[in-house]
User: What shape does this take?
Amino acid sequence: MEMTSPPTCPGTVTVRRNPPRKARATPSTNAPQMPLVPSSSSATTRAIPSFPIQDILSMEIPEKPRNPPQPEPSSSSPKGPISDTLKVYLRIRPLLPPKPSGRNGSVRDPIPRSRAKNAWPQNPAKKTESRDKNAKKKNSGEACVTVSDSHSVTLSPPIALQESKRIKSEVYDGFSHVFPPESSQGEVYERMVRPLVEDFLKGKSGMLAALGPSGSGKTHTVFGSTREPGMVPLALQQIFNQSEGSSKSSRSFSISIFEIYSERGKGEKVCDLSLEGTELSMQQSTIRGIQEVVVSDAGQAESLIACAMSKRATGMTNANIQSSRSQCIINISSVAYKVGEVDNNAVLTIVDLAGAEREKRTGNQGARLLESNFINNTSMVFGLCLRSLLEHQKNPKKPLQKHFQNSLLTKYLRDYLEGKKRMALILTIRAGTEDYLDTSYLLKQASPYMKIKFNNNAESSIMHCNKRHFQALSTVEQPKRMKVGGLEACVFEEGKSIGDERKLSKEEASRICRLDVSETATKKSDFVDLAEKERNHQIMQNFSKAIWNVLKQYKQKLKVAESEIQSLKENLSNEKTRSLELGKELEDLKSCCTCSEGLRKDASLVKVYTSSESKVDLKGCGSSNIDEKDVDLHSSDLKASYCSSTLEKCDSSPREDKDMLSQVSTSDVDAVNPSCFCVENSDQQNFQIGDIYLGNGHNTEGLNEYSGIEDNYSNAEVTGYSQSHGMVRNDSCSSVELDQLLTEEDEKSLQLPPSPKDDVALTQGCSIVDVPESQPIFDASCKDLNFEKLRRKLLPVSSTLPRDCSTLDVEDGITEPTELLDPPQSQEEDVTFTKVSEVVDVPDIEPRVDLSCKAGKPKRRLAPASSILLRDFSALDVEDDAEKPKGNRGGRKLAADDRKTTQGRIALLRLLKRDLHI
Ligand SMILES: Nc1ncnc2c1ncn2[C@@H]1O[C@H](COP(=O)(O)OP(=O)(O)OP(=O)(O)O)[C@@H](O)[C@H]1O
Assistant: This one.
């Protein structure tokens, strides 16, 4: 019997919580979904399909953009290319050029020159001399450029510059490849162009450009010769050979070729070189109207290009027998002619630039020199764009400069110069010592990297001249200074960091001057000044714009000012007109004023009753034509008559009533009597009243008699009007109302005796003007007189009152002027008011005031201005005036004799009248 043990229970049990993960099917694969199979192996084996290896292998994977094979991948090193889109190659032209026979086999030579007119220099002797000179230099065998390796070269200065210890060697690195002088065209093509052509055939555009100084081998490299075909023929052969060999499709290509040139340096033009050579236009980066010639084989393409090159602008210079004077651009485009095949629009562009040239090297003059300026300018702009692209590729943070806008060439090649398309640039240089500056300039401009082994003052001077171009390259160099006073003088100053400063001998200086300074100066003038000119042009343009704006603003301001001036002129004219009107008004007013002056000049007189009596009663005069009211003068009137400074014009009327006249006292100054006193208000005729005393029936003897009396009295006392007495200036007389002067209080104060003699009637013939000589007549304040109360009769002549007397109130007085002042017997009696500033001889007498008569004229009116005159008249001693009647003693004394002299007075008056022509 056999015993079996029970199965043991497992100690731990693993429980799987999460469901088993299932792998998600990959959509990209076409692998079929593998179904879930049972766990049995047989079933599983049947369910698993076989791996679709054949399907996977048959799938077409899209081709990725493939970079061209790098000949020498050394991107990690500075010696390698800095970018795939820009590759810079360097080719060194051999020092000893091949014999001319080799040149004859070039592509251009068999083609006749259609532009022989561009040949330069014209002087064959000079041409030969320059050739010999260049040959000597070339035969020197000295090289300034040595190839360090396949990516770098070393540029060594000439010996003269090395001796100065200021020109040091420079290492230029980073080239995709450096082609030594002995390199062939094929090598250049294989390494540089073939990748481009392959990419082009694969649908990728690219450009090959040759850049270098004149005569360095650009054209030779690009086009080559029959024996040494250049890049273009080699590329065409590859293109068409590969196309023919392609089994899939047959392709054709179109070729367009044009040049950018400048006639005599005036602007840039684009010319089609393919067929007719018509002028083209360019918009943005596109050439309008260019003709593309479809070629089917390499021979056809080469002949087309050869024909175009014959039309290209070329010329002879000292640097190159057949120098290119334009920028030549060849475009090879792929054209699909099979139905259904899509054109990839790839373009292979090959550019042969005109080489930068120095005047000293080329010997260009005139129009050719202008071409040189254009070429140098274009080359410089291209170099600036290239430099900017190189710096941007080294440091993407550095923005690309917009130099491409400054020339048509760079505009057209913008995409390449901005790194958007692939470009292979080959720099061609010459290795001769005489080419050192040109080579150095180009390398500084276009080499990816530069390392200066030694401090080089000459280079620093160039760097200084082109510091804007090579700022990135001058980081290592020590700051140096160099004074270049001109082509003849060359004095170097070593930087402080060097310290081993050594003074140059004259020979060294002159040699350096020959080799460096002149070259530097020329180079500066050729290359650097172009940028300076461009910058100055921009500055001046902006400056002129600013000035223009300022001028515009000033013009607007000027317009505003002119409008203001115009308005001011109008206002001024208005003011002038107004002033003229005012002047006229003033003249009118003055004419009124001049009336009084005229009165003075014309001896117009205002007759004033000068009766010294308080009241003149003509009733008894017997004068038939004198009314009582006309002569009824009060004492105040008398005073007013004095104030008016007028004197009666004496006139002895021949037909006077003798009765009346006889009653006139000798001393009477009868204002009423036409033969009374009259005083010319003119200054010229002042006379003593004593001379005009009336003498009734008296002859001159009576006058003499009177004269004797006069001795006892002053003239004023006798006559009241004497030349030697008070001169009355009534110009200052203001409005005076005499009645106001003689107020009642004044009258009382006057205490004039109410003597009946005061009221002298003419009939009594005892009216005497008793004026004391010691009393002033009137002061200057008695300007305006109120004749209203005087009841004075004015002559028509006196109707025009002086202006200053305008305030005279004569309304009441001017009632019957003619009756009073122009009696029938009287010849002329003018009573005038004296004018302002009129000097009138007024007798030094004091008017007597008949206060008794004041009661009969209670009505008094005070003019507003008279109040002022009251103050003026305050100077008048009224009390004295009141006492004046006492002074009549003389008059009375004379009155006693008047009767005796009446006849004589009349005669005297007549005489006076005759003398005065009154
Ligand atoms: N690598 C080279 N090998 C032999 N000969 C060369 C080479 N490079 C240039 N030459 C010769 O030098 C001369 C000047 O060359 P090329 O005309 O190409 O200069 P370039 O740079 O085009 O001048 P330019 O800018 O004035 O047109 C030509 O006669 C050419 O045959």
Remarks:
- DSSP finds 28 helices and 23 strands in the chain.
- Residues 93-94, 97-98, 103, 212, 214-220, 320, 322-324, 354-355, 428 surround adenosine-5'-triphosphate (CB under 6 Å).
